[in-house]
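User: Fold this; tokens only.

Assistant: Input:
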Amino acid sequence: SFEGASYPLCEGTLADDLRLFHSGAEGPYGSFRAVNEALEAEGRTLGFAMNAGMYHRDLAPVGLYVEEGSEAARLVTRAGPGNFGLLPNGVFCWGERFRVIESRAYKAEAPACRFATQSGPMLVIDGALHPKFLPASDSTYVRNGVGGSADGSRAVFAISNDAVNFHAFARLFRDELGLEDALYFDGNVSRLYAPELGRHDGGFPMGPIVGTVVPKG
């Protein structure tokens, strides 16, 4: 709970099998259920999952998307309409460590990432809130996003149960969770799969999905 709003939190560590999911043999998965059906072949299932970035009507990622080291969609660094284009935006990537990186810094550095998904706007950049967020903004939605620990060992995923504005959501990551870099995934369509929390949200088909993979018990 933070400032009167509640937030389910899920955490991934480097010991977890955290992956991105988008498409299978028949096209985009679009749902947590379809990802679980695909994982059955491995004798595995999702531990938790959420939507992981914005997507076009055909469910294709709006920006960078890397899965198992293979780039399926390119990085976008220009400003544009909507939340994605509200610069600075950023990339959540991981391989040897978890990182939330501003998109143009990502382009300059070109880090090696096993998985990466781009979204926007950044919520927190080096401990500072996105400069365009307004404390009293009346633009409130259910929102979800991810923050990374400074040592790169943890990624913390949050979704709001209540409609909140960007400023409040960003301060959750910085002031309550102590994370100096955080990225917005989406709002209104935000969904969570977390059986331990009694959540399996449905709704419109999703594009990128992030989640942990665990043995099916």
